[in-house]
Amino acid sequence: MPGLRKNRAANLSPAAIALATTLAMSAARGQELVQAQQSSPAASLPVVSATTKERIIPLEVSVNGAISGQWALLERNGILYAPADAFEEWRIKLRAAAVSVDYRGQTWYPLTGVPGFEARFNFANQSVDLVFSPASFAATRLARDNEAALVLTPAVPAAFVNYDISYTGSSFRGASSVRDLSALTELGFSGNWGVVTSSYVGRNLTASDPNSPAGPASWRRLETVFSRDFPESTTTLRIGDTITRTGVFGNNLYYGGVQLTRNFALRPGFITQPIPVIAGTSSAPSTVDLYINDALRQTSTVPTGPFTIDNFPLITGTGEARVVVRDVLGRETVVVQPFFTHNDLLEEGLSDWSFEAGKLRRNLGQDNANYGATFASGLWRQGLSKSLTAEAEGKVSADSSALSLGMSYELPLQSLGLLAISRSRSKLSGQGSKWAAGVERTSLKQSFTARVEGAGRAYRELGWEDTRLANRLQASASYNYATENWGAWGLGYARINTYDRGSLSTASLNYSMRVGQRGALSFTATRVSGSSQGNSVGATLLLPLESGVTVSSSVTRRAGQTDAYASASRSLSSDTGTGWRALAGTRGNSAYSEGGVYMQGDKSLLTADLSASRDQQTVRLGAQGGAVAIDGRVFASRRVDNSFALVEVVGYPDVSVGFQGSKLTHTDKDGVALLPRLQPYQRNSIRLDPSELPISAEIDNIELVAVPASRTGVKVTFPVRSGRAALIKIDFDDGEAAPAGAMVALGGDAKEFFVARRGEAFITGMQAKNSLRLTWNGQSCNLAIELPAGALDDITRIGPVRCSGVKR
What we know:
By secondary structure, this protein is mostly beta strands. Helices cover 5% and strands 58% of the residues. It contains three helices and 56 strands. The strands form nine sheets. It has a 24-stranded antiparallel beta barrel. Strands 4-5-3-2-1-7-6 form a seven-stranded mixed beta sheet. It starts with a helix and ends in a 6-residue tail after the last strand.
């Protein structure tokens, strides 16, 4: 082997030997210069003598093993220099003290000024592998860019109605029977301008006697509201009946008026909470596997140098991130880092707010329009840092007002803390105050929460009745721990001290364990003391079976009575189908049973429930659904709770239409269908089933994307070329078949068809009489083709037909 190396060196050209010598000197001088720079900053300047030697060397360059292409490097007195764009492309950070040189009108920087520089040359192919310290590279950030608002599909004016009708018949021992028909309805209108909805409730609709046990027949208005979303600014405007957003104390008001609020839901994928940053370093181009709590969440590729990851899936609480860096040589480096994040925190610099004004709503569901005091309120939350979010909330009316301040912040041991204080003023009670403090920690195996609130006797909130008093003190705490093999258990405690009703305490203990592969057995024990007292213990067994069937049984003992039952059920899926449930047991030491059947179609949900005990038998029948009027058509539908699309495949009936991989409906006799359940402000891929289209139908795309606004309708049209198909054989004047690759166009259609072997062209979309045009080498001819009578799906063979005037 030494002889082989000697022979190879002996055969090198003088230029290759000079290159090898230069690179070796550059690496050696580089090490000396780095050492000199470390000992004396003044030594960082390269020494230039009167006999400076300079030359340009073209080299195939790789950087830390990654091929970078061919670069021209400058060799000056045995030191290698590179142009500034090379440092930028290689992502190498230059030291601020690096001194450049000018040569042939270009600025060059010494590679020896970069820490860890080493040149590994291959003088046989005039290439060099430049090696730098990983810290010398610019950092790579694997970041989740907050998704920008998508371009909305224009809305089509539409109207929709939802209904939920329920009939109940009850028979009682020793009392008269009760019959009740009730309905909950909603009427809505939508368009590019927004959405208007109004809901109503009807009770005892079959009652003719105002003194009947169920009460008189009545209709009451519930809510009427206009809403308009502004996705570009993530804000929503509401005018009408709505509810204020809650602050740290969780008190909200139901009112009629106006609300302008930040709405991050208008931009799905937008992350509002701080995302932990996981850092690492790769010494060569590498693959990075990210494990969160031992579950692989993502795989990324990174170049050489430091990197940070802050785009992993959203997680709330504490956990452990493990990063496995695997370079091109298969070497692995593992970095383990704990993290903490919480959805009560806002990203640094991010604001969340809401402002409302109007009149308080009273007796909802009993009165059509009962509005009281005028008020105004506002809520503002601000992410001051990644670990601190502040909040301020104010409410004011003529008779009372309240101001609350709070903050959520990260505590040691990866916990979230909460502090809040509120001050109120009321004409009735004067001034009062309220405070709250809490801590929360959540991890994969255990969680702990504790919160305590206290209020003075004079504290009042807007909307409270005059006689209502705040709780003097209320406290709650819970702890849960999950083991791998011995189940999970939890403790809970809550206590409320009032000014006028005494105190009440509740303590609970629960334990659950796995039974088989998917079953669970749980035990609970609860003790209530104070103004009310009692104890209860219970056990529940849950066993999921095949085909969505679940069986369960439960036993509970409280107040000297035992409730026990066994049940079986199959729940409904989001698609069409049938569900059912059956239950039998004892309740209050008396036999009790109930059951139900539920049939869900693509246009309605029908329900039937029956319950029976010793003293009462009840039957409930229900129907839920909706209807949509759009573009001059009316469609029956399920409840319209999301957005919807009018899908047109004109002329093609009974074609399956769906989105996100599900088939939801079929086109009608005109080739039109209503597709419900679209997700607002998201890309909805609407898809046809091509196997249900006739062979004569040609469609360019079986999938189109719609991005609707909330509860609006859009129109999606699939352009389908209809007509018959024919296989046409074409000859030239010489009697030979037209050459493969010639193009044939159908008159009145932009689509072109290729001529295949033997001069045959398969043409679709043809009518009884057709005009074709063949093009070859800048020449063309016209062909008049008539199809014989036949079925739409028949493929007709025609020819040969003569294409005159075109030469090969």
